[in-house]
Design brief:
Blueprint (H helix, E strand, L loop, with lengths): L16 H7 L2 H10 L9 E2 L2 E2 L8 H14 L2 H4 L3 H15 L2 H18 L9 H9 L6 H20 L25 H10 L7 H4 L2 H10 L3 H6 L11 E4 L5 H4 L3 E4 L2 H13 L16 H15 L8 H13 L4 H8 L5 H6 L7 H11 L2
Antiparallel strand pairs: 1-2, 3-4
Helix pairs in contact: 2-5, 5-6, 5-8, 6-8, 11-16, 16-17
């Protein structure tokens, strides 16, 4: 018989609370755990005493787990449940990543933990992720890609933090980036503007018109348009300078949005209405949110019977596509979009090679 394999700080599939407490405040942990569905067994004390459970009913498996514990030098590594790991990861992400990023992490890691929360994280295999996604029939390829990125990041973070000796999902490949093929035509944009021009429409609809114009002329993400503030406008009205934005932690620099003459005029009008705070407001004088923009675009799309992919982000795709078709080089286009390199622009807009007239004109320019 092998000896009792139950170190006093171990609970089945759960981080030792002392371990979490050393790295995260109680408030942050509780906030993160609130995001997760109740899928983890979090009993650390029972009747005033620690609850010690066997590592595995099978002695051979239990001995293997014990050996791993000894090898990595601590029980936290191999006894972490997926749910506990997700709690700690989201708590960290909330403090170290942009809101949109940790929002994705929280959403998808929580759903993954709802299915596999009580499993040991070390026992998770790529198969578990693919099976989980196969059951999401209503998720698009882009959504599944974001889900895989989120779950993979959780496991790689755990290795970086020393909570796991290796990443069980290291070999899991994420789907390729989805090319956004919907380009909003001038006629479609004009139709949405007309639907939001305030003539015969509600004030609520009219307040969305500046957002549409800003999306079209800035090439910015919906989150950028929603969050730009009066304080972000350059003195000469030539650009928006956003110190807080989606990729700030990655780029370590402000996001510069260069303004077209039309957008300069729109910005000047917005500044005349308010000297501080978010530039674009709804009918209640509250800042637009990404979700509110998404809902408004959905209503316009359905009302005008526009193509399925006509979403707010399609304006960014349209901006980049038109820039490159009009002869703006890829490096400049990447800079206008706020990217630090041309890789993403090349991947997403590589389909322009299939635009015959554009390629014919490029061939003529290439030989002078």
């Amino acid at each position: 018989m092998i000896p009792e394999l139950i170190p006093p700080s171990v609970t089945t599939g759960v981080f030792c609370c002392d371990t979490i407490a050393r790295n995260f405040s109680r408030e942050r942990v509780r906030h993160a755990e609130a995001i997760l569905l109740e899928s983890a067994q979090r009993v650390v004390r029972e009747n005033g005493r620690r609850r010690n459970l066997k590592l595995d009913e099978d002695e051979t498996a239990a001995y293997r787990i014990w050996s791993e514990m000894v090898a990595v030098g601590g029980v936290e590594h191999v006894t972490a449940s997926v749910a506990a790991m997700a709690s700690a990861f989201v708590a960290w992400a909330m403090q170290n990543t942009a809101k949109g990023t940790w929002g994705n992490y929280g959403t998808y890691c929580a759903q993954f933990a709802n299915v596999y929360g009580q499993r040991f994280a070390r026992d998770i295999k790529p198969f578990h992720v693919t099976r989980w996604l196969d059951e999401k029939d209503n998720w698009s390829q882009a959504t599944k890609r974001t889900a895989i990125i989120s779950v993979k990041r959780m496991f790689s973070w755990s290795v970086e933090m020393g909570l796991m000796p290796s990443d069980p999902l290291k070999t899991l490949k994420r789907p390729g980036r989805v090319n956004r093929e919907v380009v909003i035509t001038p006629e479609q944009h004009a139709a949405m503007i007309a639907k939001s021009d305030g003539r015969g429409q509600t004030r609520r609809a009219a307040c969305f018109r500046p957002v549409l114009i800003a999306l079209k002329h800035s090439g910015g993400r919906p989150s950028t348009v929603a969050s730009v503030r009066a304080e972000d406008v350059a003195e000469d009205l030539s650009m928006w300078v956003l110190n807080e934005h989606k990729t700030r932690k990655k780029t370590r620099r402000p996001l510069l949005v260069y303004l077209s003459p039309c957008l300069q005029t729109l910005t000047r009008i917005a500044l005349h209405q308010r000297k501080s705070g978010e530039l674009f407001r709804n009918a209640r004088s509250e800042p637009w949110t990404r979700n509110a923009i998404r809902i408004r675009m959905k209503r316009l799309r359905e009302s005008l019977q526009l193509p399925k992919g006509t979403i707010a982000y399609a304006y960014r795709h349209t901006y980049a596509t038109n820039a490159m078709l009009n002869g703006v080089d890829i490096a400049t286009t990447a800079e206008l979009l706020g990217h630090t390199d041309v890789r993403m622009v090349s991947e997403v807009y590589g389909h322009l090679a299939g635009a015959p007239e554009h390629m014919k004109a490029a061939a003529k320019r290439a030989v002078g």
